[in-house]
Design a protein that fits this description.
Layout lengths: L6 H13 L4 E6 L6 H11 L4 E7 L1 H8 L8 H9 L6 E5 L5 H7 L3 E5 L10 H6 L3 E5 L7 H13 L1
Parallel strand pairs: 1-2, 1-4, 2-3, 4-5
Length: about 160
């Protein structure tokens, strides 16, 4: 099995990992244009446990969240680039507007989001805590964002 897996394979793999006593960490995002902020965030998430699972929004889901001009990079490419990172163990695409269904299937020990999210806005936080897990906010690298990167690219193209 590679790192990019179906939802069914992900649920099986994470259940097996937990049965072995390994700590499963889950995070999610669009990961449209990978940059240092992403790689640092994922490395910090991995440091919290043994198995880092990354849920990635499908193209349809990204358009619903970010608008018709996104994503820049197609879902299969985004999934494989994230999977190539040494900090990432498993990647699964999800088509829903939120990762809640994926989170309830995985039942992670730790749910990670960026520190910019308020606890009450983190999808799946209540579920994870109700199942004995915890929610961790990881500091984001200032000045590193996909939105900012796209703006700089568009600005540089005008000159």
């Amino acid at each position: 099995m590679g790192k990019v897996v179906s939802r069914e394979d992900l649920i099986t793999a994470t259940a097996d990992a937990r049965a072995e006593g390994r700590v499963v960490v889950f995070t999610n995002g669009c990961f449209d244009i990978i940059h240092r902020g992403h790689t640092q965030y994922l490395a910090e998430a991995k440091a919290l446990g043994d198995v880092l699972v990354v849920g990635i929004n499908t193209d349809r889901s990204v358009r619903a969240l970010k608008g018709e001009t996104r994503p820049i990079v197609p879902e299969d490419d985004r999934a494989h680039v994230v999977a190539a990172l040494s900090s990432v163990d498993l990647v699964c695409l999800f088509d829903e507007d939120t990762p809640l269904e994926l989170i309830t299937g995985v039942v992670p020990d730790i749910l990670v989001k960026g520190a910019g999210y308020e606890r009450d806005t983190i999808v799946g936080a209540d579920f994870v805590e109700d199942h004995g897990g915890k929610v961790v906010a990881v500091e984001e690298l200032e000045g590193r964002s996909t939105r900012g990167m796209i703006a700089r690219i568009l600005d540089s193209d005008k000159g």
